[in-house]
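Ops channel
N.P.: pipeline sanity check, posting one input/output pair.
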């Protein structure tokens, strides 16, 4: 059985071919917050840092929408929130 983290990783790798991808399950930090009521324990909140060349020329909003679209099935099955850091390789190099 795959975890949600594994599925997110596979989906983002297939859709964006990232140079780097970090996915962290932060569900434990949100165990008691109001928006989580009725959701299964764990695997609901993630932080994603992705560097991908295909993000070039896209606004921050367009990048976020593309990730949310790619993960639509996960959102419909219990994924509640994503914290996203989405950069091109050039942006990642200039931030280093």
């Amino acid at each position: 059985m795959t975890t949600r983290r594994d599925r997110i990783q596979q989906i983002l790798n297939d859709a964006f071919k990232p140079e780097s991808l970090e996915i962290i399950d932060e569900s434990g930090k949100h165990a008691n917050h109001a928006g989580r009521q009725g959701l299964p324990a764990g695997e609901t909140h993630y932080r994603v840092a992705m560097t991908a060349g295909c993000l070039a020329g896209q606004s921050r909003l367009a990048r976020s929408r593309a990730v949310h679209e790619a993960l639509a099935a996960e959102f419909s099955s219990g994924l509640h929130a994503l914290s996203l850091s989405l950069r091109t390789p050039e942006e990642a190099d200039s931030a280093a």
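N.P.: looks fine end to end. The chain has a mean pLDDT of 89.
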